[in-house]
Amino acid sequence: MYRPSSVTILTTDKCTAECAHCCMFSSPNREGNLSYEEMVRAIDELNSLNPMATVVWAGGEPTLLGNKLLDAISYAYSLGISTRVVTNVSWAVNEKKAKEKLIRLREAGLNELNISADDYHLPFIPFQNVINAWNASKGLGFASVSISISYGKGSLVTPEWVCDQLNISEALIEKKNNKTPRSYHYAEVYKGTVFMVSAVKIQKIGRANEALPAEEFDQLEVSDLEGGCQFIAVNPAISPNNELLSCCGFEAVNNEILNFGDLNKNTAKDIYSKVYMDPIVQAISQRGPKFLHDFVKEKAPHIPWKENYSGVCEVCEDVTSRKEVVEVLNEHKDELGLRLIFNKPAQQDVA
Description:
- 34% of the residues lie in helices and 17% in strands.
- It is α/β, with parallel strands linked by helices.
């Protein structure tokens, strides 16, 4: 059975910056807010399935929740779970205010601070806010402080640019690959806190697909995107409407395959039991979205496909969100399950 190792709670409806098209993980247009009780219940249920390593709050802008966020962080911390907040630091208008906010978060039990910074935040939030939060966080006892960048081919805000703004020397310590496209361009330990600058290339998914020109994205051959997904069901997300989602790679609320179910109506245990029996989810986990892509091409050769993709998440969105593709997958679920059992390629018959 899949066991959650962490969960991302999408806790707020609007991002302070009203960012136009951050490419992944967050959205300025989500509706609704989880109550404190819903967050606690979700944490308890998922943690009962498997002791979780981390609870992440993202958005939107999670700090808009105020004391509700602080209370939820304290609760997770009381269970021995590491906690992380992904924030645009709109509140860090100077170092004094930044430090006041960070002290409250740290006293609540926040372990990790993740600061979003890219071209898509920059029109709304000055990069000086990022510098203020970065400087103010030093010496407060966080386990890690990360500036996380999403960037394309024409972006101003690149890892090199960020390092230059922070007056630090870039030292690339991990190169990206197609399956795990995040790279770390700077890392140091200061008074027990790991400070880092990390980056991920934007993928042509969600709002980025609509708002950004094609030349902003890498163009990878679909054959380069083989392999199972390490995140699906293992690192789920919870929508502001309390729906359990497969991951936070892209918006999955209205996705028939990747929206696992309503936590107001079903327990996490019941939902995970059904997910475990779903061959489509198992195929993504074990063999990857490319496997499903090839399977549907075989079964329905009339369905058109892109020649290139910007990353594996784009393949997954393409496979799981198109009605005609999902219909083919549902129609051939039994055969798909058999191919997984016998470890057969997508385009090979099972005797």
